[in-house]
Amino acid sequence: MTVSGPRGRLLTTRRALLGMAGAAGSGLLRPARAETTPAWRRPLAEADAVIGFGHTGPITDGGWSMVHDRGVQAVRRAFPKIRTIYVESVPYSADATRIFRQFVAEGAQMVFATSEYGDFIKDVSDRAPDVAFMECDGTNVTGNLGWYYVAHWYASYIIGIAAGLMTRTGKIGFLGAFPIPSVYASANATLLGAQSVNPSVTLQSITINAWFDPQAATQAATALADNGCDFLCGIMDEPAYLRVAVQRGLKAAMWNTGMLDYGPEAYVSSVDLDFNDFYVSQVRDLLAGTWQPQGRFLTLGHGVDRDAWGPSVPVEVARQADAMRTRLLAGYNPFRGPIHDNHGRLRVPEGVTLSDLEIYHSDWAVAGVSGLE
């Protein structure tokens, strides 16, 4: 665990934490009586506040966890008297439960899981009703647990337009970690954007069972290039497939943050995330005693957007893609029927528009997507 206080003091104790957490759990996580007002509903002095963050990867990954760590830094700047604690590379196992319990044992009044941990965090939040919990990419809302996520499908749609205009082979290659809703939403939005300007475009996906595995991502990107894909995109926490695009003379769009420096000649753009304002607002609400558990999306222009276009993107391509961005910012929703899945079934009838929540829970691929079932 890494701890920072008002003076930037750092303490690394992650291994010790995993051994201590089980013993610390039972007495500290007893549910409060139903009539007790939760602590997070009462104002809290900044100097007394402890905020915990559990990251799915290393904060030096250049992507997802790094972006969330920027949010932690923003909290420290906004509230210099607050103590923040965090653990990197939290596993998807019982160890996650121990880590979240240890945050409570350390006195955290608010805990963020910066990726989906499902029952691992819900079990802890159920037993610690005086602590506010938020889960990124989660689904649960309880008495003291909420979720947050980015409506990244709009930025993906914009980038998809650029892909549809720039591909020469008509084949987009997509890398994902697992066949889960966030990956379906990204792949579907990218292809639908591409097909809006180039109806014959298809998208081939490969999932590598990890968010951060540069070697596997490199192998998958190479396989996609070998299969004729000349535009690579996806949801990965590092820039491995951009390097493949540079080596093979392809184009690539990234995820999490701007990655121009890793391959400017191949770089098109990125789904660019910014959790800074969100984390600061959540902590501010906690201090004021006004925080409430709920689910919420960070929307286009407010936590998620496209990065600046790379130098090889033609002016006309950028203009056409940005015309759609302007429409999206004005409230237009392009995810409207008829939309068929990749088995030919009508999923969205004509005249029906998918809501953000429906896109968020997608578990099917649109027509033209292969390799994602």
Automatic annotation (TrEMBL):
<dbReference type="InterPro" id="IPR006311">
    <property type="entry name" value="TAT_signal"/>
</dbReference>
<dbReference type="GO" id="GO:0005886">
    <property type="term" value="C:plasma membrane"/>
</dbReference>
<dbReference type="InterPro" id="IPR052910">
    <property type="entry name" value="ABC-Purine-Binding"/>
</dbReference>
<protein>
    <submittedName>
        <fullName>Purine-binding protein</fullName>
    </submittedName>
</protein>
<dbReference type="Pfam" id="PF02608">
    <property type="entry name" value="Bmp"/>
</dbReference>
<keyword id="KW-0732">Signal</keyword>
<dbReference type="InterPro" id="IPR003760">
    <property type="entry name" value="PnrA-like"/>
</dbReference>
<feature type="domain" description="ABC transporter substrate-binding protein PnrA-like">
    <location>
        <begin position="51"/>
        <end position="300"/>
    </location>
</feature>
